Amino acid sequence: MLLLAMDTATPAVTVALHDGQSVVAQSSQVDARRHGELLLPAVHRVLGEAGLKLDAVTGVVVGVGPGPYTGLRVGLVTAATFASALGVPVHGLCTLDGLAYASGIDEPFVVATDARRKEVYWARYDDHRTRATEPSVDRPADIADRVAGLPAVGAGARLYGEVFADARDPEHQSAAALAALAAERLAAGGELLDPLPMYLRRPDAQVPKNYKVVTPK
Residue 163, SS3? Predict the structure, then answer.
């Protein structure tokens, strides 16, 4: 097994290789505006660090969000393209699950990432392997009573400390954790997600209302 994992659903552009036992190489850069520019060089970098070529990959893992439209699509399209070119499967994982797994927390806690618009993408977990609720997008103040007293990880927790009082690491997503979680689930015969985007809300760009339709004469 050699899994190529990537996630661009958050400001972190993160890539890793996992051989089924451990992480072989990884790269992460935090830049919310350069997902498309940074992702392919990161893939090239981790392959070079591992001394491997792309055709050694036996499967692709990608974070499916939730996340903003543009950044999320970069990772999903790239993962699907690699998988198609190599003739290997592509597996999706919830981005929040990767952050939860990286935390190693073995008590109830929350993962919260920055959804912009003064909102967070979030979910509750029973422990770092077990998600207790479906991912949602909400204003932090609207969920304060549901997360009160719980540890929280992710950039959203750091942004809204008045709601997430016990903010812990990690702040940013790691493809290494995502790959390790995928390898664990695949080894146990578990199912992963289809590589489809988890948006949770409509994109910012929309067709204007009452626009004038121009028809040929």
Answer: coil
Assessment of whether the complete model's pTM goes beyond 0.70 = yes
Rounded to whole angstroms, the Cα distance separating 45 from 52 reads 10
Q: Which two tokens stand for residue 162?
A: 């008045």
Report the candidate in 96, 85, 86, 123 with the shortest Cα–Cα distance to residue 178: 96
Specify the long-range contacts of residues 103-108, CB closer than 8 Å, at least 24 apart: 103/128, 103/153, 103/168, 103/169, 103/170, 104/128, 105/151, 105/153, 105/168, 107/151, 108/132, 108/150
Q: pLDDT tens digit string along 124-152?
A: 999 999 999 999 999 999 999 999 999 99
Q: Is the pLDDT of residue 207 over 70?
A: no
Contact (Cβ atoms closer than 8 angstroms) between residue 198 and residue 73: no
Taking alpha carbons only, the member of 67, 117, 127 closest to residue 93 is 67
Cα 16 to chain centroid distance, Å, stands at 13
